[in-house]
Amino acid sequence: MSDEQLSTVPQMLEESDPGFLTLTMQPDDYYDVLRGVMRHGSQNDTPTIMVSMSLSEMALRNTMEKLEEPMGHVQLIDCMSEMVMSPKTGTSRYVESPRLLEMVLLAIERGIRGSDGPCFIIIDSINSLIMHNSRERTMAFLEVLYNRVNLAGHKLALLHLAKDDDGLSIPNLRLISDRTLVIE
Predict the structure, then answer these.
(1) Fewer Cβ close by (within 10 Å): the C or N end of the chain?
(2) 12 lies in some domain
(3) Separation between Cα atoms, residue 56 and residue 52, nearest integer Å
(4) How far apart are CA 93 and CA 110, in angstroms?
(5) Domain around 149
(6) Tens of pLDDT along 135-152?
(7) What CA–CA distance (Å, rounded) separates 15 from 103?
(8) Is 26 part of a structural domain of the chain?
(9) Angle of helix 3-15 relative to helix 30-43, nearest 10 degrees?
């Protein structure tokens, strides 16, 4: 992804209304889109809550550091460190597993309460959610989260890695989100 394309991600997020967005990308663009999403929060001084169900805290922080993307504005909810027995820094909220969706919701709620004003919430990713939970359970989780986000005027970005075998077509994603942005 070129620098020009990378700058379009925060711009697209800025132009979107509060609510539930799905960002669909090719796997090769994952880190660039993640950088763009992080940039959106830092450029707007928006409290950002990232729920990582794909990478451990250490892997995410090391990656963003190498990409020279600041994470000081990000409250991280790490659902992977316990599963992969990764070291913890203590600066994140930890959930033992991506399967504990009730605990994920509580961690998001705590993050929202600790912030001033509307938050930007990032869920990385629906692919990981569905890998660890049934589709029905994932959709119920997203519906509860959607209702909470919409009532309070927050913005939620759900990352989706488009793969031929994931069974998540664009029309299906539109059923659970206000807007689907396809990053090409």
Answers:
(1) C
(2) no
(3) 7
(4) 9
(5) 38-182
(6) 889 888 988 998 888 888
(7) 31
(8) no
(9) 50
